[in-house]
Write a structure and sequence with these properties.
mainly alpha; Helix Hairpins; 5 helices; binds phosphoribosyl ATP
């Protein structure tokens, strides 16, 4: 999806040229280690998606929140989106 690439690029910029924004703050160590904050959010968003599915509401929104935070983790870890694409291609049957 083109939009995922676009958001990924914005996130790389937020990591490398921090501004006062949600994703920049998440990727910066401040009080709490950045990685811990990101992983905590992924845990929360997983739980929110599970609840959304069980209640059959807001599934798209919660899935987007989870995928967004996974993207933040990949950017933080310096893993390129192409690596994810390659992995999916490798698995394709
Ligand atoms: N796609 C998203 C996106 N999806 C979700 N979110 C944020 O992820 C957070 C989700 O957390 P929650 O649902 O728990 O809501 P919350 O209670 O507000 O969050 P917390 O108080 O727990 O941190 C919200 O603050 C959302 O705004 C996003 N924030 C940004 N983006 C994209 O990322 C780019 C960079 O964003 P910023 O640098 O943060 O502006 C933007 O251009 C957007 O395209």
């Amino acid at each position: 999806m083109k939009i995922l690439n676009e958001v990924y690029k914005v996130l790389e910029d937020r990591r490398d040229n921090p501004i006062d924004s949600y994703s920049s703050r998440l990727m910066q160590d401040n009080g709490k280690a950045a990685e811990d904050k990101i992983l905590e959010k992924i845990g929360e968003e997983c739980a929110e998606l599970i609840i959304a599915s069980k209640n059959n509401e807001n599934i798209v929104e919660e899935a987007a929140d989870l995928i967004f935070h996974v993207l933040v983790l990949l950017v933080y870890k310096g893993i390129k989106l192409e690596e994810l694409s390659k992995e999916f291609l490798r698995r394709r049957r």
